[in-house]
Amino acid sequence: MPMTDEERFRFDLTGFLVRPSILTPDETAAIVDQIDRMRRDPESLLPEHRAVPGGPASVLIDHPKVVEVLHEVIGPDVRLESFFHVWRQQGQRHGDLHGGGPQQADPIFGYRVNNGRIHAGMVRVVFELTDIARGDGATHFIPGSHKANFPMHPDHMSLEDDKRSEFLTTYECPAGSAIFFTENLCHAGPIWRRDTPRIGVLHAYAHLATHWHRLTIPPAVLAGLPREKQAYFREPWVADFRTQPATINNIERFVGNEETPVNTDRQP
Ligand SMILES: O=C(O)CCC(=O)C(=O)O
Ligand SMILES: [Fe+2]
Asked: Mind listing the domains of the chain with CATH numbers?
């Protein structure tokens, strides 16, 4: 089992998990440089590197320390549904607390444990590319809210300093760490307080058979990825019964068969 017993206990209890320093300093620096150029000077990058998850950031798509957690909390076949970078300056924020409670019933977001196995819906992974201290204002969580049976109570939904829930918490970690959380966990990206930016990449993974986000990856970026990484954008189905035996849309088949299409869902 690749997750430790302590990690599994922690993820189930709280709804999130920090894996510190999964990237090397060189990998982290290369992604920071890529995002910096994307913002300031995209022409200096190859077209297929002008957005995440292309170029240096593609190391994140199927990082072994990420995939082993996803396989255990989602299942053996996962897709990468959503990805974006943040370059958050002091005073900027993502938004208020959201998620938790009633979403638990939803098969896309819901969190269940059966027969000793976690079956999470969508799981977000935050890759922090700068050191994070507790007071900085990285992602905040209400632990346990991924399993809450009642709607989130307004008394616990404030991010104002003197009105915060006693349960609201966050993390500290070195640059190059990954933070996993079930999308069912009540969470927020509060005001960033540090005078240097928060640089990071956020992914959302889901079961192969589900499809929540429409695909936004630029065609050039998708085309520039190796087949093993394109596999994370394959079409969202599990079994094709038009063939005998049924064709199973697993990663091995996708990688071994160049004809198998990637997801062709494109925004108009
Ligand atoms: O920006 C953050 O820290 C949180 C982002 C978030 O809430 C999301 O991606 O759903
Ligand atoms: Fe969110």
From this structure: 5-256 (2.60.120.620)
